[in-house]
Write a structure and sequence with these properties.
Blueprint (H helix, E strand, L loop, with lengths): L1 E5 L6 H12 L2 E4 L6 H8 L6 H20 L4 E4 L5 H7 L5 E7 L2 H10 L10 H7 L8 E3 L4 H11 L3
Parallel strand pairs: 1-3, 1-4, 2-3, 4-5
Amino acid sequence: MVIVLMGVAGAGKTTIGQKLSAELGWKFYDADDYHTRANIEKMKRGLPLNDADREPWLESLRAIILDCLEHEDDAVLACSALKKSHRDFLLIDERVRLIYLKGSYDLIQERLLNRTEHFMKPSMLDSQFATLEEPEPSTHLDASRSPEEIIEEIRSRFGR
């Protein structure tokens, strides 16, 4: 199984993903590690990515998921996957499951303002919410809950 944790920057994808994968003994992948240098530089300048920018990044992520499925490796992928088309590309089959960490604008803004060592600038938050196409409600988890509560809910949902 591959669990894709999605949401806007600052929703807690990496924190939850690292802790969940450690608890389960699964591999962890952070989609931020697979952006091209050009994408990172663009975001550092406060410019949002467009679909053309995201294409090679999404292809890399899909390749990781395919490799995990082929080798029957369980994994957690932290990935914004803001658009339905992104998720459709990554959710290859029923072995890839989605969790949306949903947070209010104010919560996410506060978190981004407290982050100092990330290329995603707080000024880009508006573009994140503007791009976001929320998935079906059954995938939603409240990002304001503690990491432990969120992890317990994920484990419960997937019988882990």
